[in-house]
Design goal:
alpha/beta, 2-enoyl-CoA Hydratase, Chain A, domain 1, six-stranded mixed β-sheet, 11 helices, Enoyl-CoA hydratase/isomerase family protein
C-alpha cells in the first residue's frame, strides 16, 4: 500500500508531500492522520527551520475525498471527527514559529484552499486554478477556509468565491493575495517542476538567513487577532528585545555594523 503522505527532513527543511495523486490528494482518514502526525513533527522538531507543502500528481489538493466519505463513513460524527484531525495540522502550522511555503501546482479546490492558506508563502503554476465549489455538492466550507480566506482576500472577495463555482486563474489568485507568485512555462509537468523548485528556493532562502527572525515575524502576524493593538505593540517590543539578545541577531548586527563602519 502506498503511503498517503511522504515526510522527510533535509538540512533543516521539512517536506510534507500529499501523496494520493489518484484522488487529487483529497483527504481520506489515512491521509488525515498522517497529515496530523507530520505537521506535529515538523513544528516541534528543533532541527526544522522551514516547512514545504506540496502534492503529488497533477494537482495540489482537492480538499476532502467526498467519495470516501460517502462510502466509508457512518455519518456526520465521522465527518466531524475527521475534519478535526485535519484541523489539528492546520493549527500546528499556523500557530508555529516555523515559516511555511506551499508548492501548489495544478488545481486547488474546496478544503485544499485551507491547506494552501496554512502556508505563509504560496507558489502556484501559471496554469493553476483555485476555487471553493463546496455548494456544488451541497457542502459548506471546512479545513479553515471560512477562517483564513477572509483574512487573505477580504470579506467581499471571500463571499464572491464561496458563493459561486468559479475557479480563479493563476493571475487572479495572485492579484487577490491567495498566492505570492505564479510561475512556470510549458506543459503541466514542466510547470509543476518549476513550482516545486521555486518553493524550495524560498524555503532555502529562509534557512540561509535569520530563519528564527522570519519565524517570529510569521508568528507575530498570524497571532495578531489574539491581541489588542496595544498588546501587539508590547509583543513586538518583547520579541525584538529577545531577538536582539540572541546569537543569530548578534552575529548579523556585528556584520552590519562592520560594513557600515567601513564606509
Amino acid at each position: 500500500m502506498t503511503d498517503p503522505l511522504l515526510y522527510r527532513v533535509d538540512d533543516g527543511l521539512a517536506r510534507i508531500t500529499l501523496n494520493r495523486p489518484q484522488r487529487m490528494n483529497a483527504f481520506n482518514a489515512e491521509l488525515a492522520y498522517a497529515w496530523a502526525d507530520a505537521t506535529a513533527r515538523a513544528t516541534t522538531d528543533s532541527t526544522v527551520g522551514a516547512i514545504l507543502l506540496e502534492g503529488e500528481g497533477r494537482g495540489f489538493c482537492a480538499g476532502g475525498d467526498v467519495v470516501d466519505m460517502a462510502t466509508r463513513m457512518a455519518g456526520a460524527s465521522d465527518i466531524e471527527r475527521l475534519a478535526k484531525v485535519i484541523n489539528s495540522g492546520i493549527v500546528a502550522l499556523t500557530s508555529s514559529s516555523v515559516p511555511v511555503v506551499a508548492a501548489a501546482h495544478g488545481t486547488t479546490a474546496g478544503g485544499g484552499l485551507g491547506i494552501l492558506l496554512s502556508s505563509d508563502y504560496a507558489v502556484i503554476g501559471t496554469d493553476s486554478k483555485l476555487g471553493s465549489r463546496y455548494a456544488n455538492i451541497g457542502l459548506t466550507p471546512d479545513l479553515s477556509v471560512s477562517a483564513q480566506l477572509e483574512r487573505a482576500v477580504g470579506e467581499r472577495r471571500a463571499l464572491q468565491l464561496l458563493l459561486s463555482d468559479r475557479l480563479l486563474p493563476a493571475r487572479e489568485a495572485v492579484e487577490w493575495g491567495i498566492a505570492a507568485e505564479a510561475i512556470g512555462e510549458g506543459d503541466a509537468d514542466e510547470i509543476g517542476t518549476a513550482v516545486r523548485a521555486r518553493a524550495e528556493e524560498v524555503a532555502r532562502f529562509w534557512l540561509s538567513g535569520a530563519f528564527g527572525a522570519y519565524g517570529q515575524a510569521k508568528r507575530l502576524i498570524r497571532s495578531r487577532p489574539d491581541r489588542t493593538f496595544a498588546q501587539q505593540l508590547d509583543e513586538e517590543a518583547r520579541t525584538i528585545a529577545e531577538a536582539f539578545g540572541g546569537p543569530e541577531a548578534q552575529g548579523l548586527i556585528a556584520a552590519f555594523a562592520g560594513r557600515s563602519g567601513a564606509r
